[in-house]
Amino acid sequence: MMDLVWSQRIAEAYPTLFPRRLRQAHMALISWAEDANPDGWPTPSDVERFARLYGVPRGPLGALVGMLSRQPVNDRRVVVWVDAVRDPDAATPHLIRQHDHKVVRAFGWFCATTDLGWLKLRAPVLH
């Protein structure tokens, strides 16, 4: 019963927490990856493409699907993605705290949905 209450609260919070364009990008990304990728889940390059296509920041979009981006200090042009879906141990609290509140909120929403069992991968594939 408690899971049902939490599921409803999390689902109801989605449109309040995230702008319409980001939600559209998120849903399109999830739908596309389901058929396009072997494990049915977005890859970092998918996040990059959909962020550009929808004109949304890649950080929050990636976080909504369990990915955190960071730029190494020695090369600001390179983006390194940490994939908490395929490698949960890589998403350390220290890394999470380095992001702004929009990314942390999106990643928190993703973690809450994962805890409720909303994420169902066929078999994780590392990219």
Question: What's this model, at a glance?
Answer:
The protein has helices spanning 2-17, 20-36, 44-54, 58-64, 93-97, 101-115, and strands at 67-70, 80-83.
Order of strands across the main sheet:
1-2
Major beta-sheet overview: 2 strands, antiparallel
Given helix and strand content, the structural type is: mainly alpha
Give the overall average pLDDT: 84
- Measure the end-to-end span: 37 Å
pLDDT < 50 stretches: none
Strand content: 5-15%
What is the approximate shape?
A: globular
H/E element sequence? HHHHEEHH
Counting copies of identical and different chains, the oligomeric state is: single chain
**Total DSSP E strands:** 2
Rg: 14 Å
What is the total number of structural domains?
A: 1
What are the key terms here?
127 residues, mainly alpha, globular
Task: Describe this entry's structure for a reader.
The protein has 127 residues and is mainly alpha-helical. It contains six helices and two strands; from the N terminus they run H-H-H-H-E-E-H-H.
What's the helix and strand layout?
Blueprint: H1 2-17, H2 20-36, H3 44-54, H4 58-64, E1 67-70, E2 80-83, H5 93-97, H6 101-115
Antiparallel strand pairs: 1-2
